[in-house]
Amino acid sequence: MAIFFLILIILSCVIIGFFILVQNPKGGGLAGNIAGFSTQFMGVKQTTDVLEKGTWVLAVLIALLTVISPIFIAPKSGTGSEPNLRPTTTQPSPATPTPTLPAPQQTPPPAQP
Hints:
By secondary structure, the chain is mostly helical. The protein has helices at residues 2-22, 47-72.
């Protein structure tokens, strides 16, 4: 399930990157580049609207996928290849003794001559 969400997120990112790169920053987009026509030519005038709406839809899709994916990806229990970062117990187990420091040695007072 994690691979499925990862593929969807990466695919959405690539498509939104394509949409952003195709758009013209001055607002012309693909509509102004078709043989210099400023009027509608076979629906190209609507291209900027489609690219802008597609960018917003994909941005929302990426946000939703990243927020929803942890809900559907179940954490692995038991021994796995990934380390468990959450502590299961807060008390030390009785099988392992806690290390103790040696008691400080007392030195006798210096002798008086």
